[in-house]
Amino acid sequence: MVARVRTVAFQGIEAVPVDVQVMVAPGKVGMSIVGLPDKAVAESRERVQAALHASGLSMPARKVTVNLAPADLPKEGSHYDLPIALGLMAALGAVPADALEGYVVLGELSLDGTITAVAGVFTRSKCPSAPVDYCRQNLAAGKARVLVVNSGNANAFTGRKGRESTALTADAAAKDRYEAAQKSAEADYKAASARCDDLKDNAKKVCVETAKGNEKVAKANAEADYKQTPKARYDAAVAKADADYSVAKLRCDDKKGNDKDVCVKDADAAKTKAYGDAKVMRTSRESSKDTVAARHDANADANKAQYKAAVERCDSMTGDSKDACVADAKARFHQ
């Protein structure tokens, strides 16, 4: 898995976007940073390791590669510490990878894990610094949501008007993207459903249901991107699970007998697992201490549903073969 975090490189008074890519893979234990890092960036390795240790996390006994893209752009400064650390945490699963989407991150790490101010992020003058200008431009373009820095930098922001201006820009851009996504979903549904007219029987039903499901999922995702709440993300995941389930059940109508029964049970199992994963995702963002319990419940429900599907397959057998099949299903799904 490659985790990605956005940051910037300074070129004079300009801020150039940089994609911090972190991959944890089998190999020689250690961390390497590539992408034309200067001495301060290369030393991020030591600061990140110490900060993670101080925060209760340990470096993996695997090879960690950090790529600062574009590779041909020189990277200077200590503000890469924080995006590298967050990328590593995402690659390790300590934070949800999608939680970092839309963030622009800058910050130097102390050995105890605190974030220190970095030069060049904000100015005390009436003119915004390069990262602030960059963030405002990308807010309107839908490429960024938030600029993450140390509070010491935030205290040197461009004043109340600057904060209000940036907030208004972000809110207006987010609403525009939401409304555009809703209209796009509706247009896509009309086009997709029209293509179903040439089909017949169950194939046409599957086609129409797929179009409806895609519209619901697209609208739910737009709602989640707009509201940025755990509940909205959960609702989007549930919408996807429901859409997939409806199509899967319709596809089962093309089968008969035990094959159809197995097909339905498989669809039930997939939906149950998707619901469980959605609940775990929401719980992890609302209350991390309850995540373990939520994951345990989700796994139990998924195992139960998969067990039912496995037993349904056994119904096509007889005698000892069926008994062995059921026993294997019980063992595999802990029933």
How would you describe what is shown here?
The protein has helices at about 40, 45-55, 80-90, 130-140, 150-155, 160-195, 200-225, 230-250, 255-285, 290-315, 320-330; strands at about 1-10, 15-25, 30-35, 65-70, 105, 110, 115, 145-150. The chain is an alpha/beta fold and about 325 residues long. It folds into two domains: about 1-160, Ribosomal Protein S5, domain 2 (2-Layer Sandwich), CATH 3.30.230; about 175-330, no CATH class. Helix 6 (about 160-195) runs antiparallel to helix 7, helix 7 runs antiparallel to helix 8 (about 230-250) and helix 8 (about 230-250) packs antiparallel against helix 9 (about 255-285). The longest helix has about 35 residues, at about 160-195. The protein starts with a strand and ends with a helix.
Keywords:
alpha/beta; 11 helices; two-stranded parallel sheet; 4-stranded mixed sheet; 335 residues; Ribosomal Protein S5, domain 2
* Percent of residues in beta strands: 5-15%
- The CATH architecture of the largest domain comes to 2-Layer Sandwich
Helix/strand/pairing class, anyone?
alpha/beta
Write the H/E string, N to C: EEEHHEHEEEHEHHHHHHH
Low-confidence stretches: 122-130, 139-146, 151-159
Number of separate domains? 2
Separate helix tally: 11
**Helical proportion, percent range:** 55-70%
Give the overall shape. globular
Largest sheet: 4 strands, mixed
- First-residue to last-residue Cα separation: 32 Å
Cα-atom radius of gyration: 25 Å
Sequence of strands across the biggest β-sheet: 1-2-4-3
Q: Can you identify the CATH class of the largest domain?
A: Alpha Beta
